[in-house]
Amino acid sequence: MSRTRGTRLLGLAAAVGLLALTVAASLAFGNRDIPLDVVFAALTDRLPGDVLHNIVWDQRLPRTFVGLLVGAALGVAGTLMQGITRNPLADPGLLGVNAGASLFVALAISVFGITSPSGYVWFAFAGAAAAAAVVYAIGAIGREGATPVKLALAGTALTAGITSIITLILISSTETTNAFRFWQVGSLASRGTGTWGLSWVLLVLLAIGLALALLSGRSLNLLAMGDDLARGLGANLGVARGVAAVSIVLLAGTATALAGPIVFVGLVVPHIIRPVIGGDYRWILVYSLFVGPALLLAADVVGRVIARPGELEAGLVVALVGAPVMIAIVRRVKLAGL
Questions:
Q1: Tens digit of pLDDT for each residue in 122-137?
Q2: pTM of the full structure
């Protein structure tokens, strides 16, 4: 179904507004609710001795910032994955990104004794990148190159193998299991605090990944027509998939490094957007920048509110909410071809 430019711009404005609301909620709600006027005062005129102002600046602002980065990265990475594989059920985990990151974090805990989230970051990123590279190398074997089916099969096989290795590591050490399970559930808690400097480093990788993703919009539109037609229209399939794969590694690797293996965001976001704006990937990618973080921040806020005085991790809330939403989407649109 075609969509007018005006409709798409109106929908984009709504997505930006939704994201602004979730950001405000992320700053205001938690174990201790803070009125929005106090949040605004803290952001514009911080009083160092004010407890509420300190909560906003030292806890909720870094956490919200990480949520924005992770949500945008996962949303865009999911769109890219479904575009290059032409698989409506694809998400970053399909390339083994989550499994590779998990393996390296398990090794960091068991071999090097690292137990802090800030210490996991680079291990998770290296694992995600290594796994994606292995999957792409395996998928590229043969005359046809890295076809969607071969990439999906290679990712599934590698994930199964890595999962077995992780299980062996965890059953051999209770301490490793206890430290690993907190990271594995996917959380924004304690990932933002104290990581401002680190986030700026990862921000560079994230910016490169987003730039490559936005440049891939036209290529994804051509790939959606099928390899033969895309090739006939002048698309270089190898280059197009290679650029998209690099972008996925940078985006999903950064997101997993910062918040753990959060599922469903990359899977659900493109399906939320398509009924609104159609199948043009240039628009879907732009929308994903706003819908992804809005979804993740909303899940984080819900997790903080419903489990007071404790909280549920954002990864658990996304999974609990995302599963029925995904089933509803599948039943409604019957997963029309991409």
A1: 887 788 888 888 887 8
A2: 0.85
